[in-house]
């Protein structure tokens, strides 16, 4: 079914955010915001930058919406509508990125990341921070009815769910690229006749990362945990930090984070580290294993909680957190849920 393509001039972009976008699978590739240089972003007011973040998220999801089956159909392969759909998504991802979803006990890399089948989408509740000229952190909600994870053969929730994306300017490509991504959407049904892969086994080739960077990552995460326990987060929290939790709570800026933080005595053990680094940007994914924990009103003797943390090294050589994503354990489809028949034609 043919849908109207919404386009924005620069004047319309700067006048305010766009709340709703509908993209047919035949939509062309438009990267106005992704090609906007850091100098232009530096000059924006806070309100204008929020509108710019909205445009970035809409462009990202417009590219994602080209992946998979034709609009209104479910169960087809990734490049069913466009042969270049997945490669075009990969062009928006940094070579050193880590991307965490709520459905796995590991993060994907640029090579292994499997884009979902997205039809219509709505971006809302945009928050934008700007830790450095070449860095942006976007925290927002996405409502994508009829979306599915092609690799896991699952239908995803159509409710508005949080997402956080860190973008790094690539000087060679002259565009913004995703260096870390936290997607909190959860599955609601399996596609009939299609079994999902093991959510605990990361793709072959997605190793832990460089040994030196891994050592830095472990020391910084331990430092973060110690500072949380001693209520001294100012030492490691960047002024432009964003925080998002699976339960929906999210915070923007160090003032907001520090005001809401309470010291917590923790016996958690950190494990299963993955780390990637691009210059002064370090992306760390790990499991925070805690005992006697309650998730969704259910008590567990022990549970692994995935974390995705992005750190920036400042001029003083100190690492500070610019993005923190706290997941619960990998989400599965509720027991007894009927499968959904594929509708691809």
Helix content: 10-25%
Mean pLDDT, to the nearest integer, reads: 87
- Name the overall outline: globular
Compute the number of structural domains.
Answer: 2
By DSSP, the count of extended strands is: 15
Largest sheet, order of strands side by side?
2-1-8-7-4-3
Beginning-to-end CA distance, first to last residue: 14 Å
Give a quick account of the main beta sheet: strands, pairing sense, barrel closure. 6 strands, mixed
CATH architecture of the largest domain: Roll
Alpha-beta content class? alpha+beta
How would you characterize the overall build of this protein?
This protein is of the alpha+beta class. It has 2 domains: 10-190, Nuclear Transport Factor 2, Chain: A (Roll), CATH 3.10.450.50; 211-326, Nuclear Transport Factor 2, Chain: A (Roll). The chain is 18% helix and 35% strand. The strands form 3 sheets. Strands 2-1-8-7-4-3 form a 6-stranded mixed β-sheet, with helices on one face. Strands 11-10-15-14-13-12 form a 6-stranded mixed β-sheet, with helices on one face. Strands 5-6-9 form a 3-stranded antiparallel β-sheet, with no helix packed on it. A hairpin with a 4-residue loop joins strand 10 (237-245) and strand 11. It starts with 9 loop residues before the first helix and ends in a 19-residue tail after the last strand.
Write the layout of secondary structure elements.
Layout: H1 10-15, H2 38-42, H3 46-64, H4 85-90, E1 93-101, E2 107-108, E3 122-132, E4 135-143, E5 148-149, E6 154-156, E7 161-170, E8 175-183, E9 187-190, H5 211-229, E10 237-245, E11 250-252, H6 254-260, E12 269-278, E13 281-295, E14 298-313, E15 319-326
Parallel strand pairs: 1-8, 10-15
Antiparallel strand pairs: 1-2, 3-4, 4-7, 5-6, 6-9, 7-8, 10-11, 12-13, 13-14, 14-15
């Amino acid at each position: 079914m043919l849908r109207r393509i919404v386009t924005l001039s620069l004047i319309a972009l700067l006048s305010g955010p766009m709340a709703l976008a509908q993209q047919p699978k035949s939509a062309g590739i438009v990267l106005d915001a992704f090609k906007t240089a850091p100098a232009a972003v530096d000059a924006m007011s806070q309100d204008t930058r929020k509108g710019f973040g909205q445009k970035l998220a809409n462009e990202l999801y417009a590219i994602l919406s080209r992946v998979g089956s034709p609009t209104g159909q479910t169960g087809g392969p990734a490049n069913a509508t466009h042969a270049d759909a997945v490669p075009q998504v990969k062009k928006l991802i940094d070579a050193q990125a880590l991307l965490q979803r709520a459905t796995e006990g590991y993060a994907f890399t640029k090579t292994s990341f499997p884009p979902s089948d997205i039809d219509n989408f709505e971006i809302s509740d945009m928050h934008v921070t700007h830790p450095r000229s070449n860095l942006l952190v976007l925290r927002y909600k996405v409502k994508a009815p009829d979306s599915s994870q092609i690799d896991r053969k699952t239908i995803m929730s159509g409710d508005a769910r949080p997402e956080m994306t860190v973008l790094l300017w690539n000087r060679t490509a002259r565009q913004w690229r995703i260096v870390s991504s936290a997607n909190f959407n959860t599955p609601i049904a399996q596609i009939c006749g299609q079994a999902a892969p093991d959510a605990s086994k990361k793709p072959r080739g997605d190793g832990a990362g460089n040994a030196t960077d891994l050592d830095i990552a472990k020391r910084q995460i331990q430092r973060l945990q110690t500072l949380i326990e001693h209520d001294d987060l100012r030492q490691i929290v960047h002024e432009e930090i964003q925080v998002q939790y699976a339960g929906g709570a999210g915070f923007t800026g160090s003032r907001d984070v520090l005001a809401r933080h309470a010291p917590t005595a923790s016996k958690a053990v950190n494990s299963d580290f993955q780390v990637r680094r691009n210059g002064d940007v370090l992306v760390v994914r790990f499991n925070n294993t805690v005992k006697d924990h309650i998730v969704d009103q259910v008590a567990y003797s022990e549970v692994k909680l995935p974390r995705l943390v992005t750190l920036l090294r400042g001029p003083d050589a100190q690492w500070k957190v610019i993005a923190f994503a706290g997941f619960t354990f990998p989400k599965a489809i509720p027991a007894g849920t009927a499968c959904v028949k594929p509708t691809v034609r």
